[in-house]
Amino acid sequence: MRAAAAAAADWPPGSVHCEYFTGPAARPPEPVGEERPFRVRLAKSGREYDIPPGETILDVLRRHEIAVKASCELGYCGTCLTAYRSGEPDHRDQILSDADRRRYVLICCARAKTPVLELDL
Ligand code: FES
Question: For the chain: N or C, fewer Cβ within 10 A?
């Protein structure tokens, strides 16, 4: 995977997709800071949920019976990819490009740097 990524390093952004089936050893996880509580707003329904420290957005949405897809729940498969509309995510995944991070968040591991993160759900 490292060799393939290095060979394609100068390709245009978005033209390479790496899919890991275990955590990539070449790229350590994003530094994880203190977990602060925040809220998620679901743009399509207007519902809001508190995300406390120690729980993920995915955990809370499931607890409220919101159907969301997930697989690895560790930030490396991309199954839980969700667009967001406002707020600033605290990305903690291992796979999203900088361009992806401007539009999407992986809700199994991301938190928020702002008090509210509005998801396109
Ligand atoms: S479920 Fe795999 S990245 Fe979120």
Answer: N
